[in-house]
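Discussion board: Methods & Data

I've been asked by a reviewer to show the raw model output for two of the constructs in my manuscript, not just the figures. I'm not sure how much to include, so I'm pasting the format here to get opinions. Each protein appears as its amino acid sequence followed by a line of discrete structure tokens. Is this the kind of thing reviewers expect to see in a supplement, or should I convert it first? Here is construct A:
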Amino acid sequence: MLTVAVLLGGFALLLAWPIPLVLSRAAWPTRSPAIALALWQAIALGGGLSMIGCLLVFGASPAGSLLGAARALLPHLFTGPIPPVFGVVHLAALTLAAGLALHLALNLALTAVRAERERRRQHQLIDLLSDPMPGQPRTRVLAHPVPLAYCVPGIRTATVLTDGLIDALDDAELRAVIAHERAHLDQLHHLVLLAFRAWHSALPWFPIANRAERSVALLAEMLADDHARRESDDEALRRAMLQVGSGGEPGAYADSGGVVPDVTMLEARLARLDEPRQLSGPLTGSAVVWTAAIIVAVPIVALLATLGAVA
């Protein structure tokens, strides 16, 4: 079991620093943002499972298996004494594993509650201050001179445009903006961003957590851009993006203090429109998908292997 714990610890380190660093600097995710987004989710899930699993397996190693450790320790948690085979370092590892799992779960729940509370508040304000846009279901118009467009997710979704934006855009540009915002809603980008926002909130001192959240937010924007490009044309989307600018989507990102698209992200999206639409080949895409599956499978298989293992 100690070997498994060491392997899980090494795997967690790889997923915590070098692999996310390489992925955040790679060029191919801009060509296949959906596959890159799946890989980022696999890295986050696999890294969390590996960190917790490493501590759990090491702490349970004196009993020879996870089930054996549970049988040896649970009856003595309140009645004592703790079996002497478990040293202080083993008990500390088990406590840290449980604390880390609880910390991550509570941060996810708290972030979700805050996001839902903010979404409800935004829907109330939208109902009060805006009017339905004729011919565009789930779209509201806000009387405001600044050109803005954003979406508010939830059970009841809404795309919000301002008068200033509608006046500044032609029909093709307006179609591109609406398609972009609806892509965020239809593809449930807020749920993906929520998970990475919670990870960043749980580990604010962890530099990769911030890098991952920014990368995922940019990939979500690119996915929405791709949908808009199918509804309109690249030049119309470019003009619309320049009109909206970098501050055009507060509703999609500000619901719980997450990353807000900035000028750097806008420049990356605009530069992408200048490049030919080259998707990753089927072999490359399959390799990334298999890599994502293996990243998640490794800690799960390791934990299952030590569930009833004998030392």
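Construct B, same format:
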Amino acid sequence: MGSVELESVKNSVRRMWADDVLPSLSTLVSIPALSPAFDPDWAETGHLDAAVEHVRAWFVERDLPGATVDVVRLPGRSPVLLLDVPATEGAQDKGTVLMYGHLDKQPPLGGWSEGLGPWTPVVRDGRLYGRGSADDGYAGYAAATALAAVREAGGSHARIVVLLETGEESGSPDLPAYLDHLSDRLGEVSLVVCLDSGGNDYERLWLTTSLRGLAQVHVTVRVLDTAQHSGMASGIVPSSFRVLRTLLDRLENSETGEIRLAECNVEIPANRVAEARETIEAVPGSILGTTPWHASTKPVVDDEVELLLNNTWRPSLSIIGASGMPDPAEAGNVLRTSTTLALSFRLPPTADSQAALDAITKALTTDVPYDATVELSGVEAADGWNAPEPAPWLTKALEHASDRIFGKPWGNVGLGGSIPFMGLLGEKYPEAQFVVTGALGPDSNAHVPDEWLHLDHAQRVTETVATVLDAHATS
């Protein structure tokens, strides 16, 4: 796409974001569309359906030539929204471009700043605040806007399918079934564009080159049928918390955070180590500078390259929840019956998540101290993803967009989080090219209070996607 057309794309994108996207996206923010894991009664509460209907109606209003808009529902599964747009003349043989995002959201959490709230969209200083603004409500809007901008500029695109799921924040448990169900309809996917990611600053385009997998389990250690006075039972009955602590030591080195299980570790590819060094050289301080450290807390290590590799290619364990323990203000001298911890493992991109989960399960349930009862629930595993090398046409398109839109070379970086859909797509479409990017930055506050979307960066990402669609069609 030449310079004149690129200017046209920019003008179209900016106009559509101001007139069409921002008002509708703001309304989407106000819908408390919690992911099914956080709203088991989602079918009754109706918020996910409301989010799907809101965006479906917006897609229909775009009136893209030949487009169909469908809500696909499989029994017992959260819905999927599809926008299907036929290829422009001459690009019918380029396969399908699958553009991905999600409409479900993380829980609201407390602690939002004054004047802000999870379901209250607020535009302030070029930012749209609210839950789901950056993760990932804008994605469907950006995809459709990029598509419309290409057409307005006289460019080309292959057949486009925009797929918005409603279970990503729950680990995308329904997507394998939907991929099988939609396989014939999708056809041969040659390009995947995912807008559920981001990078280390808002100054350049960032491509995500890897995503970690995950394994999660809720582990309960039970030692009594009824709670006992601690003065009468301690020293006789083992503490359920101590038993759990012993089991955790099998999984993690508590001094370093290293995961002990071989199944959770991989050898880091040399190109990803080099990439990490380049990322830190491009944006020094990006790992440490945006972390809201408390008081004198220090990072795990001082080397930012090692920190980035820790976050993207090494496994880690986070204790994300607990039950069985009363609030300290209400805690009596009682030896409790049980303790439950929610364990969340982030796994290297190329680790076998099921093998890792099996190893975790074995470590937690074999030779348990004092023969205490161990119960596992909430078990989940999903593989990560490691990007293929970009094709020459894609490299050229990204170089052009980075130069003209951002004025800086694009950056490559691994992401410490998970997008299970990418692993599924990488396995199903091994020949496809991937553009995993987005408007999230290191301080966008996804999943936590004060989530916000950098509006200018989101628009530049939209412009870039438009150029990639045209380049793909004409390659």
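Answer (T.O., handling editor elsewhere):
This is acceptable in a supplement if you add a one-line summary per construct. For B, something like: Residues 3-29 form the longest helix (27 residues).
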